[in-house]
Amino acid sequence: MLSTPLSFQMITRDMSATLKRTAAQPDVKRATEYYQENIGKVTSIDGFLDDQRLYSYAMKAFGLEDMTYAKAFMRKVLESDLSDSASFANKLVDKRYQEFAKAFSFLTPSAQSEDALADIEKKYTENATKQGDSQSLIRLSTLAYEKSLSAVKTVDDFLADDALVAYATTAFGVDPPGTAANAKIFLKRILTSDPADADSFAASQTKSAWKDFAAAFNFSEDGNVRIQTSDQATDTVSSYLRQTVEVQAGEENEGVRLALYFERKASTITSGYSILADTALLTVVQTALGLSSQTSNADIDVQASYIESRLDIKSLSDPAELKKFLTRFTALWEAANPSSTATTSVATLITGQSSSVMSADMLMSLQGLKLGGL
Fold this sequence. Notes:
The protein contains 22 helices and no strands. It is mostly helical. It folds into 3 domains: 15-106 and 229-234, AGR_C_984p-like (Orthogonal Bundle), CATH 1.10.3700.10; 114-215, no CATH class; 253-367, AGR C 984p-like (AGR_C_984p-like, Orthogonal Bundle), CATH 1.10.3700. Helix 1 crosses helix 16.
């Protein structure tokens, strides 16, 4: 078995290649293809929870695989209004549930996400101004667009409203070909194709603006408003692949899994309290700083203050510094949890004792080695 530092280095040296290899694994590929092909067909929470393959895929993507059995609980999460601080998901300490609820739009499915709506309004303002429209007329057109769009449930609803179509095509500077009837057929094919698929109708158009036009809306292949935008579905797949890499690494070496997890979560760490709230993050920090797990018995404010005095949390946003920190962690993890007899032998030669029974003093001594640390 490879050592913890070497295993971690091999996985992260080219993470995109690692993820690509993981995605090509037969079981992973089948699960991902099923999710991509079917998530757009879901129109309700019941439909989502009843499809075990879709539901379990999403749960794993958000690191909630152990809670897959708790469908009643997860229903409450999905029914939560995230704009309400008192909603079920917002009251949960574990922020993964909020992220899960945020990834779907069961409460208020919309033909456009907030970001896409803001973008199309910006584009419309720019193009309408160039056409000579007054700012007051542009504002009125935008307000009318927002109001009408909120009632759209299908692509046919959208295409039936000439004002909506005119606003959107003006924003993207596109003009569908043919007669009015043919133009709507063309637009429907554009709006119900997957812009992320290079072979789709939208992506295959000579004018790239049609691909952007399709990506700005949230219609499934059957014309319904999706409960996940194309970007959200892509993010879910990416998260699933990353989670799979971590889980598979953990089956061989728990230290590698912890290092990968810390690397992924580092950008979310804002204080010592962020670390204390996550057992996995805390394990990494305690190991890297040579702290006993018994320090967790101390007052939480004292723990947070001490961690912040020993660890420059802002430095974790620097890839080079994060790499140094995780090099330190993986080396110390390997010293305390040798993954091979070779590691044990080296540790014995250096310390005169097996690393499997290494004293706390010796670990503290190793912690002081220059490993690109703090």
